[in-house]
Specification:
CATH topology: 2,3-Dihydroxybiphenyl 1,2-Dioxygenase, domain 1
CATH class: Alpha Beta
Largest sheet: 10 strands, mixed
Mean pLDDT: 95
Low-confidence stretches: none
Strand order of the largest sheet: 17-10-11-12-9-13-16-15-14-18
Bound molecules: fe (ii) ion
Distance between the termini: 35 Å
Number of strands: 18
Shape: globular
Number of domains: 1
Structural class: alpha+beta
Helix content: 10-25%
Amino acid sequence: MGIQALGYLGLHATNLEDWSGFATGVLGLQLAGRSNAELAFRMDDRRQRIVIARDATDGPAFFGWEVEDAAALDSMAARLESAGIAVTRGDAALCDRRHVRGLVHCLDPFGNRVELVHGAEVTSAAFMPGRCLSGFRTGALGMGHAVMMVEDVAAGLAFYRDILGFGVSDWIERPFRGYFMHVNGRHHSFAMLEGKPTGLHHFMVELFNLDDVGQGYDIAGEQDGRIATTLGRHANDLMTSFYAKTPGGFMVEYGWGGRVVDPATHQAEVCDAGPSIWGHERLRMTEAQRAEQHAMKRQMAEAGLRAPVQVVAGNFAMAPGECAWWEQAKAAGV
Ligand code: FE2
């Protein structure tokens, strides 16, 4: 049994105060623990999902990947060691800090700290979001996804795909190389994009309701320079989302309606439609880069790129009547 989910994320930050307001007021996370050195946030029944520690720099501190039990942890540690990767077993104090029963850690080829864990602690205390929202889509899908900018995608594949057993959902070749990988039904829990500057590009959290995302968009829009990418829909995981600039400089994707794949049968495929079906205007890109993306979106729109919304029970209502256009599109296999 391999890795089952992205369980938690650790960040380091130069400005904990800004993070506190952003994470609760914009993202709607619950501040679950606070000290002068560290903030811990909840997004569901877990004791903590995101931990942010005060530091001299901003960026990712660790990625917590879950396996089923102690035996699975041992077998994953053995697999890493036989591939020549140094693995350290976390002591009781570290397990307590992470609220897990067992933990080993190592470095990925880019120097990121990868923690493999089992037995994450849940709490019976009700989740109290930082602002009114319907909730985060987590459970078996994990806490969301993380996307890294890397110099060499091939080195990352050798580690994440070939040793840790991540499945490739799809990849892109333009406007840059990127690999999107799953460890459960979530289309991607981890992705690598080739380019600079290297480091954490963004992490994503998914909401149950499209209106949670829209209301977050309104709040972010009131803050100067907060929105990094306008509302839009991705071509590969079909997520409707926007990107906000975090106090750490990297981005967070705030999304709804992500596609679920079946890891047992999913075939990796190239995704040449470009990153987005519509929207996702990348406000920090140059005019030339934006023009290229506009052209890709226009081309795909004219070619008929459309996809059904991905809903879960309880967040949609069927409208009466038929949509002739949609019946036609379905018949054409779109
Ligand atoms: Fe994303």
